[in-house]
Amino acid sequence: MPIETVHATTVVAIRFAGGVVMAGDRRATAGMMIASRRIEKVFPADDFSGIAIAGAAGPAVELVRLFQTQLEHYEKIEGEALSLDGKANQLAAMVRANLPFARQGLVVVPLFAGYDDRRQAGRVFSYDVTGGKYEEADFQTNGSGGVHARNWIKSQWREDITQAETIDLALRALFAAADEDAATGGPDLVRRIFPTVAVIDVNGFSSVSDNDVAARAAELLGGREEGAGV
Q: Could you give the 3-state DSSP secondary structure of residue 43?
């Protein structure tokens, strides 16, 4: 009898002038059923980097926890944090180690992003199932609704985009993905379930409050209803 695996769906990472915004919808699916409406898909990796998960939810969350532990252990032993490139390489090795499970259907493909104090800029990395690591120039998406979110971001992103505009763009992209992809959860005004959003900049990783996301979502949805939004 086949096992119904819970899958996390759409996540995005978008660079702006001073850092990176990461965001994810809250829905997880198991086959044709909604397994969770409140899953978390965006996590801090350490103080200045974050990881967003898509794919088999159980192994993905376990990978996040192990990655967090390894980064913390390295910093305690060496007395300093890994470089952002070093963190990205470490995550690539962990994704590669999951390949035997991926062949059984337990695919884990994260997005990784952080603030690089050496370059004084935000950076975004994506991976393939074999652990291949690719640095993205401006943004990347992942998950079942990723193509729809990426198309929206591509049409709106610009080099001088501000942090506030990037947060709004991430939300719009996730809402657009939810319109086209059944596995991506849209904003739920009744249950007050909204995407998870985080900002990573010179001050480190910080989560955008639920109240702030709710207010932005309400404004964006109001704009759409008037024909000016998504």
A: strand
